[in-house]
Amino acid sequence: MSTSLTLLALLEREPAHGYTLKHRYDALFARTRPLAFGQVYAALNRFDKHGWAEVTGVEIADGPERKRYRITPDGVEAVTGWVYAAEAPSEFSSSSLFARVSVALLSGRSAAEVLDSQRALHLARMRELTAERRTADAAATLAITYELAHLDADLRWIEEAGSRLEPAADALAKAVR
């Protein structure tokens, strides 16, 4: 997900300070990993340089100055282009789990142990999400079911990979010779 463009899109509803923008992002998109404030302010500076957002006012209170940003027409165009652009599903072909299993196979470590521990974490997270889904609103349910579907796909891969560890180890050994 493009964090920067998601932040920019949040400015479409109404102008906001970086602090407010960060909290909106976290509430909607950062279910397990809140966004760092530095990431928000760096993005706002880039938006200003690209002409995608502009400062509409500065408030000076008991702390640092607070700039209020609003999206520009060029920013709306950038968000529209990003929303409708289909992405190649390449992120899945370079996952950390795949890399860790491959390294374990190449190094003689137990790839089965890697898969077993990952399976346990996936199942625990799926139980948490299933319980959370029972009381979630429609927007949260959308995010929860998305995560559940990906966890389910990972579990299917874990099972399949577990059944192919020996031939995979042999193929990887040949590939690095």
From TrEMBL:
Residues 7-78 form the Transcription regulator PadR N-terminal domain. It holds the Pfam family PadR. This is PadR family transcriptional regulator.
